[in-house]
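name: query_chain
kind: protein
chains: 1
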Amino acid sequence: MPSFGFTLEQTAQVVGRTKSWVSKARARWLSGDGPPGRHGGRRRSIVAESEEALLVRKAIFQAGFPFGKENPYRTALRNLLEARSAAPVSESTVSAIMNRGLKTLAPDAYGASPHEVCSALAMKYHAEARLAGLAPSSD
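structure:
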């Protein structure tokens, strides 16, 4: 840094970064800004992390046993998310919430396809509801 007697090139060499990175870091430091924000993560989340598994469970229960459809669980989750956010939801957001929810709901199912896990959970949830008298039987 010029105020310490180093050029940008010398500073970059000492810290092991590029001259461009050193210049940007210097400008942030001089302006009083902190370090740049993190990339990725849940900066603009639609639902709280604690609610994700409940939302995935609700989507699985609503989709039921739709044989022949490509991925009804993702569609049900997308509909719930779009209703909550009042805006279109990206495919990556649906995937991320579905994956995190399934890790919570079925931690032992690591490596199985999400569709298979959702089908198994749907059977479980509908059986539980029938036992509790909350859902009509399919008889």
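note: Helices lie at 8-15, 19-31, 49-63, 72-85, 91-105, 114-132.
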